[in-house]
Amino acid sequence: MNEREEYFTIRVVSEMTKVHPQTLRYYEKMGLLKPERGKGGVRLYRKEDVEKVLRIKTLTQDMGVNLAGVEVIFKLTEQIEALRAERETLVDKREEEER
């Protein structure tokens, strides 16, 4: 756990996102969220986790995507980001070789 990073408890995240704490626990159970654990097993959410909850909420409530669909969307998004990073590395390497 990074000491400089800001963490939020499940209650605070629930209030920030208007998502019930039990729903946040369910998202964790499904593997959509992976909060860190503090002393005594307290769930600690980062800013990125809060943003992810808001994306889940938008996809499910506004766009009608079920949680299985959300999982697929998140996995595909991760793959796209990994491919972009790989491409960027290859382009940088190629430019370096051309110099």
The percent of residues in helical segments reads: 55-70%
Largest sheet: 2 strands, antiparallel
Structurally, how many domains make up the residues?
1
**In sequence order, what are the helices and strands, one letter per element?**
HHEEHH
What's the short story on this structure?
The chain is mainly alpha-helical. It has helices spanning 10-17, 21-30, 47-62, 67-98; strands spanning 36-37, 43-44. The mean pLDDT is 95.
Molecular structure report:
The chain has 99 residues and is mainly α. The protein has a single domain (10-98), classed as Multidrug-efflux Transporter Regulator, Chain: A, Domain 2, CATH 1.10.1660. It contains 4 helices and 2 strands; from the N terminus they run ααββαα. The protein has helices spanning 10-17, 21-30, 47-62, 67-98; strands spanning 36-37, 43-44. It has a two-stranded antiparallel ribbon. β1 and β2 form a beta hairpin. The longest helix has 32 residues, at 67-98. The N and C termini lie far apart (41 Å). The model has no long low-confidence stretch (mean pLDDT 95).
Write the layout of secondary structure elements.
Blueprint: H1 10-17, H2 21-30, E1 36-37, E2 43-44, H3 47-62, H4 67-98
Antiparallel strand pairs: 1-2
